[in-house]
User: Which sequence fits this backbone?
């Protein structure tokens, strides 16, 4: 995720500070103006000149196939985002267009996803039903954060979300989403959004099940399962030559399987329409009237003014709060993970920084057409790849199909049963749940089960948005703990105690190190001066300076001395500038032992041969 | 902050996993039941048996002095918290009582502080003016979080807030608070709470200054400055013997200086009362009627129900949001920092874990008497220490004095001018601003200026609550960056590339390491098999396993092999359990070089002698 043309501040022991940064700045400005950089920023300029007619054929087919998948998914996902169905379509086309120009993967297709819909429904719920003000502001800010991260090469942040945390979060989100659709399958009303109350109320209200909804819902689920199976049929005569008709038939079955969502939704809508014509209208829950036509092109509203509710920009921003950070990061994680997976599978490379810029720009532009946040969709990217896509141009076809649907098909969506959309969602998200990881981690690395299980449980119990934060925080703490509590090696040299920490001295560890040394030097009535062996300390910060100062002062109270040895040049420079009184530094341990004015010095041992002793502190 | 009797999960290379944790659990449960533990949890049992009459004398004097300081401070700080003045007094006494039983420092005095008042006013502002529902819920949860952190030994979290971040946050908070009082000094109305709009509106409205407020405000400021000076007078004949009257006179001057707040507030109230009796009532802003008497003892309300506004527990909790984490952590930082400073000065030790429990319990109990969150106060702890306090028993005296004030003095507070309270606050917080740190860091360690300046600016510009989060996040990222981008050493051995990372392979670095190696091994058309030297890798997680798997698969595509050498036993165990196909491990680099089936192997070199090469990646 780091890159060779960005402004990247590194803290290295040997070249701290301004010289390196200046060079990088120069390189950065130089790189901005080259043709190579422009090509890198607009990857379309790389593939468009070589684009052929056969590429176009493949892209049209895959573009249409993806379009067939995204239309029913979009209608359904908008519900998860707490928005009317047309917003799912509004969110589906602009990403495809933008990605065509800026994307570095031929397979990725941007648009609404289950996770992003859930996050939108969690962080950006307007106080007015069916109002998208919050969602659209989230889209804009999500894009801005992603674009800024891309320009500053902050894609590295993705590396700090560990695999078990993503895995547990995804499973918990899938369960939340899937269970959230059970109410649609059974035709229940007024079920809350939070997971635990949702489960409780769903079961408590099962008595009010609408039979026709349930029948249609379960039929859709079964149909989806069976039709999707067609895609993965293994023919026994795979390797034998086949006739054209055989090939066409098999291709058709595959296409039929891939378009399962569309097939089921259309059939269910047909059934619902005939049921309604038979006057059993009230017994089936349908989508109802959708706003027809393309979304308006407009600058987002940054405040809400209605007769009853007025909310300022500040209020809206503070309500979305952590969403401005979590949602762009999740979008980034999804896109990068998908992009890398398909790049590896199809033997090409993606540029994560450029991907970040692409989804950032896609979100920023999308907010002007009332979209909620978009990112790379795993299921549709897979469909795209399997349909033989050759370039991101297929996105243009997908986008065009969606525009056509918005313009022409919206009246038909009136009859789509909610239960069928619920089935589409359930069948899409259930495959996101990964139970196998539990067994794998149990066998391979049990420690990683801790963030996994805690993320999973807290996502379900206290909410998906807090679960991911708890998980990230916990895994970072597990990473940081050893930095805060370094191991100290002790060597007794008569009246002198030699101490050697196994790593750098920074703000999490500085106080711990100095307090531990003072305690060790004065414990059991035997007061010993201290030689602090810095051979493993490559960097030091101001907190460490304060720690050293306290060490010197605390030992002076006991009339003891502190000396440093094996200090790296860069560390020495900082310590010298800090002018700590009564702290002497020596080149080697031997010299330090000879110079410190104490009795019973009996030679020295090498760093590497020291006896290691476990660390015990009182507090 | 870690402790010897708590459940402490450590990830050590040599003793991973369950055995150690089991032992710790046993030790933990064993420790719970000893007399020693009970003594540790109730430190009063240590000092009370030895308590003497002379201790009592000292504690009464210091308790009264602190009480004299906290009463005017409490009235003033409650304004910062957005609450009526009596809440400052409600918050002042219970902490003193609880700390007497549970605290481990003789000097610390708990109660309302400027920072906690600001945080309460930021995170817990009720939609109903003067309503404390939010603040009281914050107190309860703050206590619960602190108590849980104490019981789980999570005080270590404090170590992850670096000195420059705390310093910058404190200065920014002091500036925000001080400038927030300018409106009271000038008698201005309707000034917003956020810093930038507040500064703008304050200047824009200067024309509406109330002259009497301004005169009283500036007079109070000058008086406070001069009277406080009395405390620090250096007498030239310090060492000479003095007569009793001289001693008494000097002691009286010191006491007068220490009680500056009370002196100024009482005088200002007297002046205001006489002005009002002279019928210039409208020209001076006074505190007005306070609710008299002790606060009601009641279970906190967890929701708001009025005619216009209804808010559920969930809504209130989600509005306070990050406050439930930031406020307890800041309270902890304040108490520990103060406790350690005075413990060092007076040569005793505090137990940070027990301090955490003490402030946790203090907050939990305080919420039943309508208190907002309390913590250790630096200014009053200093007064306590200088007054010669001997034990936490002085808190009882302080608390009793406040109860007396609530019962008897509240009618007198009616006349206290707002301008005088504003002056009390300004004179208290201005000394919290630390400019010197800028020069020190510039000289000693310029890198630390980055989190300092960014925390300071973002605290003022985007809000104090976000500033601290930005600062903590940034300083952690600076700490984590080297973990995510380890340095790789390369040695060319003919057709074999030997790679040696300088530290462990964990989730932030796993993908980076494997991608970098693949690129290096296949760059420039020269395909080389890879020996991955693990001599500096002491721990590994599941992400690293995935990284190794990807490394093997990606190199296999180029018909290249991967071998590991110098694998630590614990790391080897994890790798073997993961059963990565086609990954061979060898004891030493020499053996690996001999066994890998490639040409041109020409012996090997030692780990430590490898040529180091800077790392360049494409992305």
Assistant:
């Amino acid at each position: 995720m780091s890159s060779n043309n960005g402004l990247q501040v590194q803290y290295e022991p040997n070249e701290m500070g301004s010289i390196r940064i200046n060079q990088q700045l120069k390189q950065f400005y130089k790189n901005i103006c080259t043709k190579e950089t422009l090509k890198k920023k607009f990857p379309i300029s790389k593939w468009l000149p070589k684009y052929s007619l056969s590429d176009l054929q493949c892209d049209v087919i895959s573009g249409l196939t993806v379009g067939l998948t995204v239309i029913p998914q979009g209608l359904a996902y908008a519900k998860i985002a707490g928005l009317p169905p047309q917003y799912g379509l509004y969110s589906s086309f602009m990403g495809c267009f933008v990605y065509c120009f800026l994307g570095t993967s031929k397979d990725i297709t941007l648009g609404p996803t289950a996770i992003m819909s859930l996050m939108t429904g969690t962080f950006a719920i307007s106080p007015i039903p069916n109002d998208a003000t919050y969602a659209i502001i989230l889209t804009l800010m999500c894009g801005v954060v992603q674009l800024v991260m891309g320009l500053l090469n902050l894609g590295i942040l993705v590396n700090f979300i560990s695999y078990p945390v993503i895995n547990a979060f995804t499973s918990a989100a899938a369960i939340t989403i899937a269970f959230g659709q059970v109410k649609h399958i059974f035709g229940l009303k007024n079920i809350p959004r939070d997971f635990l109350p949702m489960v409780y109320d769903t079961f408590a209200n099962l008595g009010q099940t609408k039979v026709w909804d349930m029948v249609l819902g379960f039929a859709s689920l079964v149909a989806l399962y069976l039709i999707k199976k067609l895609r993965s049929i293994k023919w026994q005569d795979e390797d034998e030559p086949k006739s054209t008709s055989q090939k066409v038939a098999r291709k058709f079955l595959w296409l039929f399987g891939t378009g399962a969502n569309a097939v089921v939704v259309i059939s269910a809508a047909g059934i619902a329409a005939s049921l309604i014509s038979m006057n059993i209208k009230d017994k089936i829950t349908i989508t109802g009237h959708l706003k027809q036509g393309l979304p308006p092109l407009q600058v987002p509203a940054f405040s809400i003014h209605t007769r009853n509710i007025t909310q300022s920009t500040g209020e809206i921003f503070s309500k979305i709060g952590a969403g401005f950070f979590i949602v762009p990061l999740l979008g980034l994680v999804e896109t990068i993970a998908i992009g890398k997976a398909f790049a590896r599978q199809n033997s090409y490379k993606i540029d994560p920084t450029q991907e970040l810029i692409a989804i950032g720009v896609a979100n920023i532009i999308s907010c002007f057409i009332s979209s909620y946040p978009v990112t790379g969709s795993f299921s549709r990217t897979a469909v795209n790849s399997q349909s033989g896509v050759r370039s991101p141009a297929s996105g243009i076809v997908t986008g065009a199909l969606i525009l056509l649907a918005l313009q022409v098909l919206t009246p038909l969506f009136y009859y789509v049963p909610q239960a069928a959309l619920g089935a589409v969602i359930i069948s899409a998200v259930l495959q996101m749940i990964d139970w196998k990881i539990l067994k794998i981690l149990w066998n391979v690395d049990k420690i990683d089960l801790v963030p996994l299980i805690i993320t999973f449980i807290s996502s379900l119990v206290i909410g998906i948005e807090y679960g991911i934060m708890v998980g990230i925080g916990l895994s970072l703490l597990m990473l940081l703990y050893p930095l805060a509590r370094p191991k100290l090696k002790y060597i007794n040299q008569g009246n002198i105690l030699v101490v050697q920490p196994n790593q750098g001295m920074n703000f999490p560890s500085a106080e711990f190190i100095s307090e531990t040394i003072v305690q060790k030097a004065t414990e059991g009535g035997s007061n010993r001066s201290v030689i602090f062996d810095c051979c493993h300390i490559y960097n030091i910060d101001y907190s460490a300076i304060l720690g050293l100062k306290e060490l010197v002062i605390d030992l002076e109270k006991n009339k003891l001395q502190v000396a440093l040895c094996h200090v790296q040049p860069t560390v020495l420079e900082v310590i010298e500038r800090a002018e700590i009184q009564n702290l002497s530094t020596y080149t080697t341990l031997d010299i330090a032992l000879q110079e410190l004015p104490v009795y019973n010095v009996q030679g020295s041992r090498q760093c590497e041969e020291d006896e290691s002793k476990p660390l015990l502190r009182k507090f």
